[in-house]
Design a protein that fits this description.
Blueprint (H helix, E strand, L loop, with lengths): L2 H7 L7 H16 L3 E3 L4 E3 L3 H18 L9 H38 L7 H25 L5 H15 L5 H7 L9 H31 L5 H12 L19
Antiparallel strand pairs: 1-2
Length: 253
């Protein structure tokens, strides 16, 4: 049975809904065992075996709640990608929650063992890590929905935006390495080069905001995560030399 037909048969009102439940579960288990590529780094990751059953159960229930899914009228490949993204994002959400709980447990242990207060920067560091993970999820979703011919430019712009937002690099480096700006470059040429970078980053931010809306509508982001993602994207560094990177400082507005 095709995946498209399977998703149609699992929809409310279908007389075959109970019959195909096992087939859907088996498909999800298969997808959960496959590696996925983190496009920005090229690294291959997979959902650990011990986590797969929980992830598959959660996604299967989500499919039943959200059926019919918006991809049921699309191609087999799009349905497969959609389900794999649901599994991947569910696992990432679980990891984020688990990391928070583990951090809280460690904090409680530290408080019990010593009266020394937690360093002021620890909460900000945890928040920053979560912010980066959330933004990466949105970017990965945008990347997966774009045609391959746009991937190189998209990935390059994302590296720039992240570098500025999280203070990993500077505008001067981008002007020098990507635009060929040197000490001898005229002020007008320098300004034009910086405007080109500004425009590329502005287009990416708009695309990311649209992707957040789509992910929220399709159940790939919770309302709370969608709201936070919009705030983070809006606060991304606008590539202005000397401006503070709000995301890097752990801000959400």
């Amino acid at each position: 049975m095709s995946l498209v037909q399977l998703l149609l048969d699992i929809s409310p009102g279908s007389p075959r809904r109970q019959e195909v439940w096992g087939q859907l579960y088996a498909q999800l288990q298969k997808f959960a065992s496959e590696d996925f590529i983190v496009q920005s780094t090229g690294k291959s990751l997979s959902i650990p075996k011990q986590d797969r059953d929980d992830v598959v159960n959660a996604v299967a229930l989500k499919i039943l709640e959200k059926s019919p899914l918006p991809v049921v009228t699309r191609s087999e490949g799009e349905c497969r990608r959609y389900l794999r993204v649901m599994l991947r994002n569910r696992w990432i959400d679980d990891q984020r929650r688990r990391n928070r709980h583990e951090q809280l447990a460690l904090d409680e242990q530290a408080d019990s063992a010593s009266q020394a207060s937690t360093p002021p920067s620890s909460d900000a560091a945890l928040s920053l890590a979560d912010n980066r993970k959330l933004l990466e999820r949105v970017y990965q979703e945008l990347y997966s929905r774009r045609a391959p011919r746009f991937h190189p430019e998209l990935a390059h712009t994302w590296v720039q935006v992240q570098g500025l937002a999280f203070e990993d690099t500077t505008m001067e480096e981008f002007l020098r390495n990507d635009e060929g700006v040197t000490a001898s470059t005229s002020p007008s040429e320098r300004k034009a080069a910086q405007q080109r970078i500004h425009q590329n980053h502005s287009r990416l931010r708009k695309s990311l905001l649209l992707t957040v809306d789509v992910m929220n509508q399709e159940g790939l982001l919770s309302p709370d995560d969608a709201m936070l993602a919009r705030q983070l994207i809006t606060s991304l560094n606008r590539c202005q030399s000397g401006s503070a990177a709000g995301v890097a400082q752990g801000k959400s507005t």
